[in-house]
Amino acid sequence: MPIDPILGDDADIAALQSAMSGGTLSSAALTAAYLRRIDALNLQGPELRAVIEINPQAMDIARAADAERAAGRVRSALHGLPILIKDNIATDDGMQTTAGSLALVGARPGSDAHVVTRLRDAGAVILGKTNMSEWANFRSTASLSGWSGRGGLARNPHVLDRSASGSSSGSAIAVAARLCVAAIGTETNGSIVSPSSVCGVVGFKPTVGWVSRTGIIPIAASQDTAGPMARSVRDASIVFGVLAGTDPADPATFETPPRARAELERAAAGGEAGGEAGGEAGGKAGGAALKGARIGLWAGPLAAHPLMLPVRDALEACGAELVEGVGLDNVGQMIAASSTVCLYEFKAGVNAYLAGMLAPVGVKARRPRVATLADVIAFNDAHAEREMPMFGQELLLASQACGDLRDGAYLEALETARRLARAQGLDALLDSHRLDAILSLTTAPAPVNDWVNATSALFSCSSPAAIAGYPHVTLPAGHVHGLPMGVSLFGRAWSDLRILEFAAELESRLRARRDPSYLQTLPMR
Known about the structure:
This protein is of the alpha/beta class. It has 18 helices and 13 strands. The protein has helices at 13-21, 27-41, 58-70, 114-121, 134-137, 169-176, 193-199, 233-243, 258-269, 279-282, 308-317, 331-357, 373-382, 384-387, 394-400, 408-432, 463-468, 496-510; strands at 51-54, 82-86, 125-130, 147-148, 152-153, 182-187, 202-205, 225-230, 294-298, 321-326, 437-441, 472-480, 483-490. The strands form 2 sheets. It has an 11-stranded mixed β-sheet, with helices on both faces. The protein has a two-stranded antiparallel ribbon with strand order 4-5. Helix 2 (27-41) packs antiparallel against helix 3, helix 12 (331-357) crosses helix 15 (394-400) and helix 12 (331-357) crosses helix 16 (408-432).
């Protein structure tokens, strides 16, 4: 489908706001254009299956945003811009929140997730919900990334028989295919950065604590966070600035150091008209953020990949000092401990989330048919033909077998995971090499979707930053036979704005993002 001119290459947040301020574009016209494109590409044409539900209120919200603008009120740089959000993020607007599971179909939360409240307060148009790996890919040890019982298999828009990775599959696809201005994903370990990498977009996982998790169906409270996915670092930075904020219902959001909070506030104050929170961080493309910065090159399986050559050249052209062969010996132990933590925290978190839905307060709220993780397991067994046609629920069963969060096994695993990822992991590595950030190709190019051998176990550099709870951004690095690959930057806790500055400058040198080709498969050569 040809790209509508208003959704083209110049349709970033700043350009769209400029057009709306100048009277040549309205939020209603923009929203309608995205809805037409979703209609043409999501269940027709290439059948991307990226969007699982359209917000029936989207056009009304857009018209209201136009009326506010006409009255002289522009809430933020997201005012009137259509945003898609992942299907594990609650909305109290008539849409469902299911994490892709048929067990939650029909249930509607009684309140918005905190991130949705912030988006609404910023004037954004909540356009709809995106498909995802069911239960955020925490169901089976042999799952197929991008598949959910509710939404089916989301398809990589670059090559349709290739994996879109997960679990924020639909959000990455939607951004790549221009079905929205930006999207919101969630990550426990790799669920923002991996699909962003294989779909050729920018994905940012903030330090845990910047963004509230209230109203988000959880995996693990010690690692979960929401984050932005966009077509540029600048746009992702702006969305991050809107999402970030304290929430009395999420104590982690009060752990942000005052200095980091002040830096974000200064970035917002230095943005363009309309309250461009985060704009300064994403707006230093072509600046000197990397000049003199010490960047460690991760000694992972992709360190020798040919695509690292242009990345290295770009870093050196920016004046960065490269430190070779940086890595950790304890990643396997770290992941093992984190896996135990996730099993315990998933049971506790899902049971608490479902309990909260049993007493909904919203006008359109509906209670779920399941009240506990045990109920979810029983539902899947009873509906195995639709819920488990290809893989089972081994992780749900293992989680249900765990005790509560007072168990010694859990407490020991949590201490081990944090120590190996933080003090004896990234902190020690960054200190010993005097590094400002660490860089790696994010993950391999997307494999073919394989119903037998699963496609969820790609190499990814995500684990250290995910388990530590530290910031991680991926941006397009280039293509291999038409398949995108991303490059990652990650670093210390609360260094989010600096990581985004590095990413913006690297992006300006690489200029590697391409629109998808919607190929059915790669030709044999």
